[in-house]
Fold:
Amino acid sequence: MAGTVVEIWTDGASKGNPGPGGWGAYLKYGRHTKEMCGGEILTTNNQMELTGPITALKQLKRPCKVILYTDSRYVQQGMTVWLKGWIRNNWKTKDNKPVKNVELWKELVQVASPHEIEWVWVKGHDGIEGNEKADALANQGVEEVMAKTFEPRD
Structure:
């Protein structure tokens, strides 16, 4: 895994919880950048927070060193603190309840597995350029899905 580190900033947003939601991802590799966004008409903020890193990591064509920045403690803590226990307990919490969003967590584990990832929490809305871009992209994702859903029909 030699070479330049891929930096990824991700964010999720929702208008209502559940409600229309969006995710955004901003990737940087050397002098190359990529911006991505999308959304769902009925989702939760946490589902969108998970979808951002899933979609971003799927863009990587080979195993990479990654620094993944998120303003979601849910994502950062999930991947660095809670995950081993969930897997050991067959995707149950300490209280023996099913892990919420388990299919998204399993997909994130799968797409993350080839990479060496540092999961970094950053404070949202604090002027961090990559996080601000990811936030704007997540909100763009919400707007795009809402525009598609509420277009007048002929």
About this structure: The chain has four helices and five strands. The chain has one domain: 6-149.
